[in-house]
Amino acid sequence: MRTKSVFGAAGAAFLFIAGPASAQDSDIGADASTRARLAPGRDVAGSLEQEGDVDWYRLSVRSGQRYRITLNGGDGEGQLSDPMLRLLNADGEEILANDDADGFNSAIEYMPSASGSVFVEAGGFGGALTGAYTLAVATETAPTDNTAATTRTRARLTLGESVSSEIAFAGDSDWYRIRLEAGQSYRFALSGSGDAALADPLLTLHSADGEQVAIDDDGGEGLNAYLEFTAPTAGNYFIEAHGFDQGATGGYTLSAIAGDIPADSSTDAVLSAEGDYREGTLSPGGDRDWYRVDLPEGGGMRVGLSSAEGADEALGDPLLVVYGPDGAEISHDDDGGEGLNAWLEVHAAVAGPYYVEVRGFVDDAAGRYVLNLVSGEVGADANSGEYLVANGEGRTSTIGTAGDVDWFAVDLVEGRPYRFNLEGVDPEALGDPVLTLFDSEGRQLASDDDGGRGANAYLTYASTVGGTFFAAVSSFEQGGAGRYLLRVTDTDVPGSASTDEILDASSDERLSRIDMPGDLDNFAVELEAGVSYSLDVSGAGDAPLADPFMAVLDGDGKRVVFDDDSGGGLDARLRFTPDKQGIYFIQASGLGGSTGWYRISVERRR
After folding, report:
1. How far apart are CA 471 and CA 512, in angstroms?
2. Would you list the domain boundaries of the chain?
């Protein structure tokens, strides 16, 4: 029998047997029960008879060997034009896959970590091709380096130190032994280094018997790996350094440090200003984690901090704080995200390192959290708008420069009434906020400048179709800058003393709606004793409230005075002089079951 040899990268010969053997289709299954076998040095000729067909071959492999598997088709009639090759374990889990290694032909290089059986799947790209193919396997002794890829490694990593080495060949990985103490937190970092750096490092932590206990891909800056781990038991562990792509090679630096993420500017936990995602743990109670992010002058970022969903010990009420290069606090947020989660936007006045602090609202808070950073400020159009949840705590953000506009997307339910409150908040509050509402097509629906308290903005809107709408925040005549709070409430104005609607007693008005017969809307206002006030509730808009009714309640909710038709037509009007100073409630409703839009106003007379 004729043979031929082809030398691999390490100089050892891959042995092939000339003349492929024909596979018996009856023996070729599509799962681990297949009777078809594949062996080094013996090519197999097979065929995919129908669309969706795949052929599985069992391949016995040994550790210390490197296997090159090729799947070739052809351009002629009856040939498989675009082969697809996969390597799987007995459970059908993919180990490696390749589509086009040589033209449309496929190839895989594989170095098993242990001896046993794997399965080679011959298929067509997209599962839609048929035709004849040739499958071959060649083997050579795997190249070795100074660091083994198993628990038998002699390499050690010392806490507080780092080691630099390289992933020397495709499929290589380096294991380092390290001893950890029970209950102690540790930080491991793996980054590409040198002239030919490992492009996308992957860091895996194994127990003493080699079982995986933790893994990280891009937890460091860019594509580097960073892993925080608390050892459940004392003993030996193994840190594996390798590439995300098994074929990747290059230099790396690996380090291990005892202790939690620092709670000051000495932190080695770094976030990418281009966008990043981290999961972490505050432990023990009262712990704080700091992350550094380098921003250019004028750069911005949006940071969200949330409790880790599904975690057994999730951080209950996250609190987010951001510090500038000088260590001074720039901004903080408790419930600016959904529910009790935190969210804030940061603008860099100067270039340098900024620090994101993760903590809990209560002093002894502990648990798992998720930190998400998005590059840039809140988007200036619908495509880049920030998502806002109705009935949430609202979003505190910043109009950074004159002319800036921030867009927020919010989902509204058909037929529900919504209130949009936009107000400047300290420090450096936005002086004269303007709010504009758009539909999903970008058509303007409503706009308000001073409908809220003072110069703040207020809108009410009932969606007739439901869906995603957009709220645009700006300043009056595009001339101001500063911080603001935007809230969207998915309820009618409350008809009780718990109302969140407040009127300015000097001069203020609102446009709202009675949505159902018997509905009551309460507006809180602080009035002075002996001062006369003019109060009005009148029908307004395209569907005005037909017969407005108004009552004034004291701080205990007891009716003091009321009116039905003292205004124009059936509108309500009162002149009211309170006997004592305090909080009163102006209550609007409709007589006779009437519904519709109304305007409520208060004005100090003397």
Report:
1. 18
2. 3-141, 162-258, 276-375, 382-489, 502-604
